[in-house]
């Protein structure tokens, strides 16, 4: 069985602060993929990043960075110098079983950036 | 390119009525997904199709729900009869799928259909 846990239900930070969103996953598969999606107030989900289980390199994209650690089954997401536009619900998701595209989503973390 | 298009955006209906939600995936995408989002249960996969064939329908709650994909550019999710507990936002998403080039896993979501059953 697959499971994604986002223990932080809501986070509020003041603009320009850094913030880290936690994600812990469970799977018995040796090959799997991890994702982060953003759901802004408008409602649609937007893909941010994908990581496969063989690539533990951390990734940075502008103000966003991701820390993947297989040893702790975690895939954390950090926003540096947060901005009001970062306010959204962020979902971590897991996909495994080669050939099955089913994504298991966490419950999401609602991030509010206070101006 | 146009994104995933869902209709209607909002639907209010009374218990017992039939509801049909529609989705047009991104042209060229091989996989289509129906997700449901509620406060209590979060995002749940209801069903997904690859090349118009249902691959995983384990999330379809019960016989009142049915989904079809008659061709590569259209899918429907039907609820008959509807119940108040079906109130949710229903998302359709599409992806290139395993047969559509290098696997990225990226799903492209529509804006959702917000269903309220009174």
How many alpha or pi helices of chain A? 0
Q: Can you write the helix and strand succession of chain A as a string?
A: EEEEEEEEEEEE
**Main sheet: strands, sense, barrel of chain A:** 6 strands, mixed
Span between termini of chain B: 37 Å
Number of contiguous helices of chain B: 0
Task: Please indicate the percent range of residues of chain A in DSSP E strands (runs of 2 or more).
Answer: over 45%
Q: Helicity range of the residues of chain A?
A: under 10%
End-to-end distance of chain A: 41 Å
> What would the principal axes of the Cα set say about the shape of chain B?
globular
Which parts of chain B are unreliable, with pLDDT below 50 for 5 consecutive residues or more?
Answer: none
Mean pLDDT of chain B: 92
Mean pLDDT of chain A: 92
Core attributes:
heterodimer; A: 115 residues; mainly beta; six-stranded mixed β-sheet; B: 118 residues; 0% helix; 53% strand
Walk me through the structure.
- The complex is a heterodimer of chains A (115) and B (118).
- Chain A is mainly beta and 115 residues long.
- Chain A contains no helices and twelve strands.
- Chain A has strands spanning 3-5, 10-14, 19-21, 24-26, 32-39, 46-52, 59-61, 64-69, 74-79, 88-96, 104-105, 109-114.
- In chain A, the strands form three sheets. In chain A, strands 2, 5, 6, 10, 11 and 12 form a six-stranded mixed beta sheet that branches. Chain A has a four-stranded antiparallel beta sheet with strand order 3-9-8-7, with no helix packed on it. In chain A, strands 1-4 form a two-stranded antiparallel sheet.
- The model of chain A has no long low-confidence stretch (mean pLDDT 92).
- The model of chain B has no long low-confidence stretch (mean pLDDT 92).
- In chain B, the strands form two sheets. In chain B, strands 2, 4, 5, 6, 9, 10 and 11 form a seven-stranded mixed beta sheet that branches. In chain B, strands 1-3-8-7 form a four-stranded antiparallel beta sheet, with no helix packed on it.
- Chain B is mainly β and 118 residues long.
- Chain B has strands at 5-7, 10-13, 19-24, 31-38, 42-50, 53-56, 65-71, 74-79, 88-95, 108-109, 113-117.
- Classes of the chains: A mainly beta (115), B mainly beta (118).
- Chain A binds chain B through residues 33, 35, 37, 42-47, 50, 91, 95, 99-108, and chain B through 31, 33, 42-43, 45, 48, 50, 55-56, 89, 91, 93, 95, 97-98, 104-112.
């Amino acid at each position: 069985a697959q499971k994604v846990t986002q223990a932080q239900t809501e986070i509020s930070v003041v603009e320009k602060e850094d913030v880290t969103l936690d994600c812990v996953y469970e799977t018995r598969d040796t090959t799997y993929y991890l994702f982060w999606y953003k759901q802004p107030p408008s409602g649609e989900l937007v893909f941010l990043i994908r990581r496969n289980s063989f690539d533990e390199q951390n990734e940075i994209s502008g103000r966003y960075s991701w820390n993947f650690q297989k040893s702790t089954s975690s895939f954390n997401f950090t926003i540096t110098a947060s901005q009001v536009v970062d306010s959204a619900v962020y979902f971590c998701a897991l996909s495994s079983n080669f050939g099955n595209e089913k994504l298991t989503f966490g419950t999401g973390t609602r991030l509010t950036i206070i101006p | 390119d146009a994104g995933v298009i869902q209709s209607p955006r909002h639907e209010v209906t009374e218990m017992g009525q039939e509801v049909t939600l529609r989705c047009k995936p991104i042209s060229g995408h091989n996989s289509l997904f129906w997700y449901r989002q509620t406060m209590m249960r979060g995002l749940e996969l209801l069903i997904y199709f690859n090349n118009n064939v249902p691959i995983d329908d384990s999330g379809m709650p019960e016989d009142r729900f049915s989904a079809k994909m008659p061709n590569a550019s259209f899918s429907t999710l039907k609820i008959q009869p509807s119940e108040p507990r079906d109130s949710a936002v229903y998302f359709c998403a599409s992806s290139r799928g395993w047969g559509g080039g290098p696997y990225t896993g990226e799903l492209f979501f529509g804006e959702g259909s917000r269903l309220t059953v009174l």
